[in-house]
Amino acid sequence: MLTNVLFFLLTGTTLSVLLWTCVELFRTQEDPLGDRLEELQSRALVVAQRTARRKTSGRGLDRILVLVGQVPGGEDWLHETERLLSRAGIRRKSALAIYVILTLLFLLVMSALMLWVERGNPATSVLIGLLVALLLGFLLPKMVLQRMVKRYRSKLQEALPDTVDLLGIVLGTGLALDQAMMRVSEEMEYIYPELAGEFATVVMQVRAGQERTTAFTQFVRRTGIEDIKSLAAMIVQSEKFGTSLGQALKVYADALRNRRRLRAEAAVGKAGIKMLFPIVIFILPVLFVITLVPGLLSVLQDLKILGGGR
Predict the structure, then answer these.
(1) 132 in the Ramachandran plot: left (φ > 0), alpha (ψ -120 to 50) or beta?
(2) Reduced to 3 DSSP states, what percent helix, strand and coil does the chain have, rounded to the nearest 5?
(3) Using CA of residue 156, residue 162, residue 165, residue 170, what is the dihedral sign?
(4) Which of 82, 169, 215, 227 is the residue whose CA sits 20 to 30 A from 176?
C-alpha cells in the first residue's frame, strides 16, 4: 500500500514539473527585442567559449547543462539539441536547459511506468523493460523536436514567395536593403510571423555591427532551407557587384511560387496513395459488414423457417 502511494506521489510530482517546464518553454516572449539582442550576444561567441562558460560559471539551470556535458557524448548531444531548437524557432536563453529537464523527467516517468508494469516479473524482464523505457524516453522527445523543426521550416517555405515579392516591391520604392527588410518584417508580422522574425533578426545583427554576409550566413544556418540559402547568396552577390536586386527578387519570387505549386501538386498526388491504407483497414471492413450482414441474417432466418417447417 505504501509503495503504491509513493509511486502515485512521484508520478504526480513529475507530471506537474513536466507541465510547468512545457509552459516555460513555449510561453510567449514578452520582450522580443531583448531576446533578439541576447541571442546576438550569445551567438557572437564560439563553441569553445560557450563550453568553457558552462563549465566554469554554471548557475541555476546551467548547472544541469554542466552535469549533462560531463557525461561522455553529452556535450555533442547538447550542441545537436541546441541546433534543433534553433531550427524549430525556439531560441530563448533557457530553452536548452528546459528541454534537457523535460527529457530527463520523461525518462523518469517512462522508467517508473515500466517498473509499475513489470512488477512481480523476473529480473531479466524488468531489465529489458527498463532498457526499452530509456530508449523511448530518449528518442520520443527528439522525434517531437524534429517534427517541430519540420513544421517551422514548412512555414518558412510557404511564406518565402510572398515575402520575397514584397521585398522586391519595397526595394523598388528606393529604400535601402535593411530598411526594406524591416518594413517587410513589420508588414508580415501577423501573416507570416516566423519569417518576419527571421528578417528582423538579420536586420538587428547588421545594425549591431555584424557584416551582412555573416548575418545571412547565420540566417541560413538557423533555418537550413535551400531556398533561403539561394536568397542569401543572391542578396550578398547583388551587394558585392552592385547589380539591381529588385528585378532579381521578382524573378526569384516567381520561381518560388512555381516550386510551391509543384509541392502542392505532389502532395495532392500522394494523397490517393496515403488514403489507400485507411480505406482498406477501416472503411472496407465496415462496408462489408453493412452490405453483407443483413443479407446473411435474412438467409439464416429463411433457413431457420424452412428447417422448422420440416
Answers:
(1) alpha
(2) 85, 0, 15
(3) negative
(4) 227
Distances (CA, A) of 205 to 196, 213, 249: 14, 11, 22
Is residue 149 left, alpha or beta, with left meaning phi > 0 and alpha meaning psi from -120 to 50? alpha
Tell me, what amino acid is at 207? R
> Are the beta carbons of 65 and 50 closer than 8 angstroms?
no
What's the first-to-final CA gap in the chain, in angstroms?
A: 65
Tell me the three cell numbers of residue 273.
496513395
Decide: residue 302, CB within 10 A, 0-12 exposed, 13-18 middle, 19+ buried.
exposed
pTM comes to: 0.69
Percentage of the residues of the chain whose pLDDT score is greater than 90: 1
Q: Tell me the pLDDT tens digit for each residue of 9-42.
A: 556 665 665 565 555 555 544 444 455 555 555 5
- Of 149, 35, 135, nearest in space to 88 by CA: 149
**Residue listed under C-alpha cell 536547459:** 97
